[in-house]
What we know:
Blueprint: E1 2-4, E2 9-13, E3 16-19, E4 24-27, E5 32-36, E6 39-42, E7 50-55, E8 66-68, E9 71-73, E10 78-82, E11 85-87, E12 89-95, E13 112-116, E14 119-121, E15 125-129, E16 134-135, E17 142-143, E18 148-150, E19 153-156, E20 167-174, E21 177-182, E22 185-188, E23 194-204, E24 207-211, E25 213-214, E26 226-227, E27 229-232, E28 236-241, E29 250-253, E30 255-260, E31 262-267, E32 273-275, E33 278-281, E34 297-305, E35 311-313, E36 316-318, E37 327-335, E38 341-345, E39 348-350, E40 354-359, E41 372-376, E42 379-380, E43 388-393, E44 406-407, E45 423-427, E46 433-437, E47 449-450, E48 457-461, H1 482-509, H2 515-523, H3 530-540, H4 546-554, H5 561-569, H6 572-575, H7 578-586, H8 593-602, H9 608-635, H10 642-652, H11 655-667, H12 671-684, H13 689-710, H14 720-732, H15 735-749, H16 762-767, H17 772-780, E49 783-787, E50 794-800, E51 807-814, E52 819-826, E53 829-835, E54 842-850, E55 853-861
Helix pairs in contact: 1-9, 2-4, 9-10, 10-11, 11-12, 13-15, 14-15
Amino acid sequence: xxxxxxxxxxxxxxxxxxxxxxxxxIIEPGATLELVGSTLTNHEECHLQWQGVExxxxxxxxxxxxxxxxxxxxxxxxxxxxxxxxxxxxxxVGLLQRxxxxxxxxxxxxxxxxxxxxxxxxxxNSVHFIPYKNINYNAIAEIxxxxxxxxxxxxxxxxxxxxxxxxYKHVDLDKVKGIEFRGCTFTNTATNGVSQYNLGIAAYxxxxxxxxxxxxxxxxxPEEYMDKSTFNGFYNGIRATSDGSSTNTFIVTNSEFxxxxxxxxxxxxNLNTIVDNxxxxxxxxxxxxxxxxxxxxxxxxxxxxxxYGFAIENNTFVKPETSTGQGDFAGIRVYACPSxxxxxxxxxxxxxxxxxxxxxTNRSRKLNDATGVxxxxxxxxQSVDNSEDFMVTYIExxxxxxxxxxxxSWATASGNTFSKSAVHIRNEGEQKIIWNxxxxxxxxxxxxxxxxxxxxxxxxxxxNPNTCPEHYNGGGSVKLSTSELLSKEMEFAQNLSxxxxxxxxxxxxxxxGNTDSELxxxxxxxxxxxxxxxxxLLGDSxxxxxxVLMTMSDRTDVFPDDVLFEIxxxxxxxxxxxxxxxYLENKENPLPDYMIDILKQLVGGVTYKxxxxxxxxxxxxxxxxxxxDILRSILNDSIMDTELYRNWLDNLGGLxxxxxxxxxxxxxxxxxxxxxLLNMISSFYEFQGDELAEFNDYQSLLxxxxxxxxxxxxxxxLDSMDLVTLYNYAENSTGSARSIAQNILTYxxxxxxxxxxxxxxxxxxxxxxTSLGNSLNRIYGLEITAxxxxxxxxxxxxxxxxxxxxxxxxxxxxxxxxxxxxxxVSGKQGQQVWDIRSTKSGVYLYTLTTGGxxxxxxxxxx
Length: 862
C-alpha cells in the first residue's frame, strides 16, 4: 500500500489507485494525505475488499497545530478529501492505528478526516472513530473534533462484496465529540451480506450533528437552497446510545428519513435535539420486512428510550403508500423515559397507526404527576387520518403506563389537533390525563377517548388558545446568545420563586398544616368523636391528602358511609388519583357501589387546591424548560463549561440530574468524585424495593465499566464472563441498568433486543371510544357543551344542530333518570341558559335530541 511518514504531505489528484487484499494506506501522526478528484479502490480482478485508510493519531495531544520554531506543526495524521472516493474497503477510513495482529491500539486516536463532496461506497465500514478527547493546549476543556463531512455520500448497493464480511454500519462514532455531517446522503440498497439490523450512523457515547448544507452560503438558509441530509434503507437511520458515563449528546435537523424501520433510535442519550426533519415511516423496498414483533411490521419515525431533556419539534411523520407489511407504524415513541418535563411539540402526523405512542413510565418519579412527557401543538390527520392519535400504554403492568398529568394548562390549551375519524386519546395506563383544549379552535376537542372515564382522561376547556410559537427559528439552533442566556436565567429564577411560594402555601394547608397530627387524630378517634372530627376534616378540605383519606376510610367504626362520602367528595383532587378510588372499592368494608360511581363523577371538580396545584405545575414546567434549554446550550457550545453544566444540573435537580452529574465526573476520569456522588445518591433518596434494586444494578454496572477502563479493556474486547454478566443485566434488570447493558451489547457484539409496541385492531379501536353514536353525531354536526362545569348559579348549553334538523330538545335529568328540566331549541346553533340557583347540588345528565340523533354529557352543580 502507501505509507506517509510523519511530517510529509502527499497529494493525489485525478487518479485511481487499486489495492490488493492486504494493502492499506497508512498516514502517520503529523503526516497529511490530500485526495483531490481521486479514487482509492480494490483491485478489480481480485474482487476482494482491501484494508482501507488508517489515519493515526496520539490520544494525549490535541488536533490543533502547535507553533514550533515559527512553524505550525500538526501532531495528528490528516486525511483531506475533495471530490474523492474510497470504495470496497473493509474499513474505508479508520481514525486509529492497528498492530500486526489487527488489534486496535487505543492510545493512537486523534486522527483528522475532512471530507467535502466525497463518496464512501460499498465499504464494510465507511468511517470508524475510536475514543478520543480533543483537549486544547491550555487543558481547559474538551473541544469538538476537527473532523467533518460536507455533501458526502455513504452508499451500499448491489455491487457490495458481501462474501466474507457482513455490513453493519456506515459510520461508527465511539466516544468522540463534535463530528458534523452537513448535507450528507446515507443509502443501503444491497441485497446480500447485510445485517438485518444495519445502521447509517452508529453513535456510542458520542456527540455529533446531522444537518443540512446551504448551497448558497446564506444564513438563515432559504428552503430552496437547503441540501438536506438523507437516510434511506436502514434498520436504524441513526442509532445513538450511551453507557451512562458520558455527557455527549446530538442534534439532528433539516434531514430526511425514508425507507427505514426506525428513523432515529436513541437510548439514554439526554438533552438531544431533533428538529425540522421529515420522516416517511416504514420500509418501502420489497423484501425489507422488519417482522420480529408478533410477525408484524413495527416501524417508528423516532424511538426515544430511557432519555430526558430531549427537544422533538417541528418534524413531520407520514406513512407513505409505499410502506410495506401489515403491522404498526408510529411517529414518535417514548419508552420508559425518566422525563422531568419534556414537551413533544408542534409535530405533524398523517396516516399512521399511532401518531404519538408513550410506553412505560415516562416520568422522572412515578408519584409526581407534574413530571413527565407532555404533548403540545401536535397536528394529527392533516391530510390522512391516523388510526389513533395519542396512545399511552405500559410495558408489563398497567399501573406503569404514564406520562405527565396536565397537557397544556388551565390558562393555555395544549394546542393539539386531532384526526377527523380516529381514536383521539387512548390511555391504557392507570394514571389520569388532563387534556386542556381550546373550545373555539378547530379539531382540538378530544371527543373519541378510551376509556370514556373521567378518572383516566379528563378533557378541560382552557382559558386561552395555544399560539404554538417556533422555538428554534426553523434551524434547530440550540446555542443561546449572551442575551438569550440571561433571559433564560431570569425565566428560571422567576418560575423557581413562584414555584417555591405556591409549594409553601400548599404545604401550610395540607392536612391542616400537620399530616402526622391529622393521622393521629383519626387513628385515636372514638365513635363519640365523629362529629367534631367530621368538622375538623371538612374544615381542612379540599387539602386532605390521599394518605389521610385512606386512613379515614378504614375507620368505619367511627365514620358512617354517608360521612365518609361527604368528606371524600370535598376532596376531588385526590379522587383523581385512581389508587384512591381503587382502594375505596377494594378495602375491607368498601363503600357502596353507588357512592363510588358518584365519587368518580366528582373527579375534575375545581377547588382552591386544584388552582394551587395547577399553578405549581405551570411554574415547575417553566423552571424545568428554562434549565434544560440552558443545559442543551452548554453541551453544544464549542468549548463546554463543565462547572456551569454541573451548576445547572444542580438547579434542575432530581435523580436523573444527579446521575448525569456522576456521568460528568466519569467522563473526565475523576472516579473518586463520581463514586462519592454515587454513594450520596443511594443514601439521599432512601430507595426501597424495586427502586433500590434498580439503583444497585445501575451502580454495579458503572463500577464494572470503570474496572474495564482501568485495566485498559475496551468493550469490544470483553471476555465470556463479562458478556454473561451483561446479558444478565440486559434481560433481567430494569431501568438504567437494563438500557446500559443492552446498549453495550448492541454496539460491541451486534446483539439485538426487541421492545415491541402493543398491537390493537385499529378498526375496533375506532369504534371503541365514546360510542358509535357520538361518532355519527360529530359527522352529522350534532354538538352540545355545558359551561361553566362545575356550576353554581347557571349553566349555559352551547349547541349545534345538523343540517336539515332545525329543532331539538335539551333534557336534563338526575342520576336516577328523572327529568327535572326540558328546553326546546332551534336554529343551526345557539345557547340555552339554565338557572340552577334553586337546584340541589349533584351530578346531572343533559341530552340534546333531534331527528333520531342524541348527544349526552354530564354537569356538576356545587
